[in-house]
Design a protein that fits this description.
By secondary structure, the chain is mainly beta. It is built from 1 helix and 21 strands. The protein is 4% helix and 49% strand. A hairpin with a 2-residue loop joins strand 2 and strand 3 (36-42).
């Protein structure tokens, strides 16, 4: 009960939050795992109950310490550079344009590879409340090894830039969310919606977007910003710049 109480104090549920929120990258909050300082963009502190969005930027050799999400699936996208997914002593390289889907219970971490920096985003479904407290960091002095399993072929790798549209979902074992990637020319639009109990995150990697809600309200998001939508909503997404690259996470 004490742990649960502390977590609720750290990450309160915001039942009266607006259904649409634009999160500027400058307002994201840092957290550290191993030798990597990541940033939480969408997280339980904002009232997120079904998805998160994290961002990390690291130099070669930097390691996001091995850890386990007890009940959360983890999807990791490499936006720039090269990364090794580490599971115990095993390393598996994946590069810009590729993602790894890690089911709950699987031990995993990342080590930046190559000769330049790596930029990644990740999302956990549902959120892992403990991740942001530092308690998952197995590299801390005196920390116990992560308690989980390493199952051959449990982690699935796909190219999210191979084509526009959905790259993650039931086809690769992801039953708690879907991930899609869209490359949009300026003025190009697409429509989307969220169910009453659902959540959606729109992360702008390149360019910018305008979000017009069915009720008439309009929201703007620029490069590295995110739009977090909760509850029943219908809206149209329009690219505000040439070559807008958008990552869309849907958690029903």
């Amino acid at each position: 009960m004490k742990i649960q109480t502390c977590l609720l104090l750290l990450f309160p549920l915001m039942g009266n939050a607006e259904s649409v929120r634009v999160i500027r990258f400058a307002d994201s909050e840092p957290f550290r795992m191993g030798t990597v300082t990541a940033r939480r963009i969408v997280h339980p502190g904002l009232g997120a109950r079904k998805t998160t969005l994290n961002f990390s930027q690291s130099m070669p050799g930097a390691e996001f310490a091995q850890h386990v999400h007890d009940n959360s699936d983890d999807t990791i996208l490499v936006l720039e550079g090269e990364v090794n997914l580490r599971q115990g002593d095993s390393l598996r390289l994946f590069k810009a344009g590729e993602c790894a889907f890690v089911p709950s219970g699987q031990i995993h971490g990342t080590i930046t590879a190559g000769t330049g920096e790596a930029i990644m985003i990740s999302f956990q479904n549902p959120p892992d409340f403990i991740l942001y407290t530092g308690a998952r960091d197995s590299s801390r002095p005196g920390a116990a090894p992560p308690k989980g399993v390493i199952t051959p072929d449990a982690v699935r790798y796909v190219s999210f830039r191979a084509r526009d549209g959905q790259f993650s979902g039931p086809g690769n074992g992801s039953l708690k969310s879907t991930g899609s990637r869209h490359l949009l020319e300026k003025g190009k639009s697409l429509k989307s919606s969220v169910k009453a109990e659902g959540e959606q995150v729109l992360f702008v990697w390149r360019g910018g977007i305008s979000l017009k809600m069915s009720g008439g309200a309009t929201h703007q998001a620029g490069e590295r910003d995110a739009v977090f939508v909760q509850g029943a909503a219908e809206f149209e997404i329009t690219s505000a710049a040439a070559g807008t690259e958008l990552i869309q996470i849907q958690a029903p």
